[in-house]
Amino acid sequence: MFNKAKNAPPENKAAALTPPDTRSSATLGTPTSSARPSLSVIGGHTQVEGDINSDEDLTVEGRVSGIITCKQHTVTLGANGYINGDVFAHTLHISGEVTGNLVAHHRATIHKGAQVSGTIVAPCLVLEDGSVFHGSIDMNPDNDVLKSAFSDAIGSMTKTSPKATVEKHSTTSANAAEHDTTEAKAND
């Protein structure tokens, strides 16, 4: 607790310092990507016009007009974010505003404060209290839209546009036809 040698010379702290290791992590045998999953972020002051294809998780805090395709990863829309177009993802977390179709291979969550207008196709859907949704919902896991949109998620991309597929099937699907005029507002 206390230093008993009052007259001991001060330690040479400069000699105790070791220089930082300048070798890259690749030379140490540690892969750099394992530390944290890759993520793309569209910031709150960014506006994108055009289609986005991502092979990593995507967070949208700004505005996007176009098709977002992130079939093997998660797309998150922040509370102040806006998407005008279709979104194809493994998992969706929506807290902002969407005008377009949402297609999730696994799960779509529409969080409190979100506003969505369009078709939602997902085998698992969560509409939190305080979210607003106008459109149709299809939760059939064998849905043709899911099958055609995600048939190439593991393999190579197909030539068919996912947007055209959604528009074609959203009005012909039995579940979508039942819910074409659905307007839902989740409240307490």
UniProtKB/TrEMBL annotation:
| Stretches the record annotates as Disordered | 1-54, 158-188
**Compositional bias (Low complexity) spans?**
1-16
Q: Where is the composition biased (Basic and acidic residues)?
A: 177-188
UniProt-listed InterPro entries: BacA/B (IPR007607)
Q: Which domain of life is it from?
A: Bacteria
Compositionally biased, Polar residues: which spans?
21-37
User: Which Pfam family is an annotated match for this chain, by its short name?
Assistant: Bactofilin
Instruction: Return the similarity comment.
Output: Belongs to the bactofilin family.
Name of this chain's protein: Polymer-forming cytoskeletal protein
User: Which species expresses this protein natively?
Assistant: Vreelandella titanicae
